[in-house]
């Protein structure tokens, strides 16, 4: 696309813009690979022929897997034809079975509307009876009975399904004939939301089994690092994976843009406005993604004002789009994007999901969205099919954004994150067990089968007066005032509680957290590019009244208190003692006024504080470090230095724990001179395992944080290093020199007590010097890593001597998805003459990131140097020992095409499949091993033990 090339030239050569361009990367186009699907019913075959639709290989593969009766997850990228892929086998079943029904679950109502239209089109064009109906909170009550009686394909959200299950008898015909459950945008079900939905799906399976059906599950997701593990945790069943994209791609240009390159008056918003205006004026239809609703409104307002002055005919081609807008407004914006009546839309991640808005030319990502999954989902909105496209990542000034924009490989080379689900969160589990009792009597067998718990937890619910025990099992207490699902709603899809009104008209609805944080009286409120002032906040009526905009000096912040620490486990590194456990968090809401840059007149809002229990990680800065700080410079304030450490560490936490920026927060009490504790805690009731992961990544977190703070060119601290305060967390004064001093002390303590911690050219053991007593004290720092055998294979010794990265370190980096760091360390140690081990390690890293072409090339280069698989099988054994079964299986399956006759590889595959609970496939592998080598007693023993 010539216009995109012209814009790229402008970015490279224009004086002011070019200073801010860190890198421009070109992602090459790819041709489509088509497949063949036999025995399709005539209506479907005729439909595909009339529409000139050729099926991609991955679309055919999905139908073939479903035909076998297996569950499947497809993780190909945005715009790869996943909707048609999962619709085909359902339509095929409908053509053969008049009673079959299907359930489609979506995280957002906007996606339901899109899929509803598509299913209607399939019904019209194929003649197959689909009978699709959406059923959500907007469905009129007078239509609900008709839908229950006539629906064949039900489209709903987890929130509505949560309510439907209690009224199961009204849906008995639908549930008894349920053949498929489709879960689209499945990657959205991670963390607290995902854990809730996982428990909800177990309740659904229990209801369908009660009515005599056992539906297959079809999951569609963005690319994930752990798709099989995730799908099995989400649903509780085994899955097959489709992750090879066979669709065509156009050229995509990725621009990394940093407004904060020592340039006068830098501003993320101003540069976002400038680039959005440039794209629109060059006829590049663009989505601009922002982190917050407020940013979306501000950017559209700024862009509109700019265009009104310079190009007024373009100023009406803009709109904002976000959660909270009513359905009609959202549908109108979506329609105008498809018809190109709108050329620029600023939005939150509400348009990140698969709402059909046609093919766009450009995407601007204004600030890192928090995960690589979201980054690629947003980038995938541009350039669908073979169209060329441009994506610009504009960094904010916080430490995390600055690190990413200056390390483009973090986005380009690193694999996507794990989707996390915690089925052991008692806070969530109790609520779902309560609901399950109200739906059907819950016996011990069902407790174990669906929820993996015994009666112990039910006794706790009984003590709370919520359930009673009967001879047939546990029952919901009839004297409760309402069905528990009405009271205990699914987190993070709860309908918004507060109405925002202007002149008697409802503008939107917002959550309690937003209402408490940004809707204090006198606050500036933005909606669709317009500014208002909050006139009244009615807490009990849950209504916020707006008036015309008035200039205000008020702002808000949240005060946090940590109480009731209950340690669960701890780990020591020298003087540092990290503890993980349960804590209580109290958040109160305050306002202050700003005058001449100073904050004055603090006052607590007349709203109840938020109090919840969660999981946290905490450690105390050793008193000897504090004493040394005073000796180093008596003018440095201890509290400001400790808080600087807290702020810097929490800013970099998402790089290692892989979570949203506000999913985990930090805390330090500056007002207590004796308190030197720093806390990191899950910002969700009950916790979701994020803080706990910090135990294993703490050394790397400290190292990268120290590097980030020292490399920042400011003298006293700035928002690019220690003065970042996202998520409404109040920021006190901080001291950069003191922060660096303490971080260096912490890092030195780690290096002194973790042998050879990441020293270049060595093989770090990452074993704490305290760990030798870990069996007695339970305080070893790292989980025990694989030790090197005393009688090592001499060929492996020779191989290991030639490489900078040890096998143990490679596995550790891969476990933490630090593919980019692993690649960099390997390449740093490579000389002009490549060695066998480096090539194998690089091939594995490419393999695990689905860069199969490059992986195959590297494997072949390695085998050209040394035609031997001993080292490869050694690495695969390490993966197995570390229980990285999915990674190991991925490597083995891709290697089978390169070394098909390797018996040890086949034996390792059998162990992996056995560990993943695929006994039939494991037996097949061990049988093949014995056919090739009848004297292989290891394979024989494995076979008889399955």
From TrEMBL:
TPR repeats: from-to residues: 903-936
Biological process terms in GO annotation: interstrand cross-link repair; nucleotide-excision repair
Keywords recorded for this protein, A-Z: ATP-binding, Nucleotide-binding, Repeat, TPR repeat
ATP-binding among keywords: yes
UniProt entry tagged with the keyword Lipid biosynthesis: no
Residues of the Helicase ATP-binding domain: 63-242
Annotated SUPFAM superfamilies: P-loop containing nucleoside triphosphate hydrolases, TPR-like
Single GO MF descriptor: ATP binding
Region feature Disordered, mapped onto this chain: 758-789
Residue span(s) of domain Helicase C-terminal: 258-429
Pfam families associated with the record: DEAD, Helicase_C, MZB, TPR_2
Superkingdom, taxonomy of origin: Archaea
Name listed for the protein in its UniProt record: DEAD/DEAH box helicase
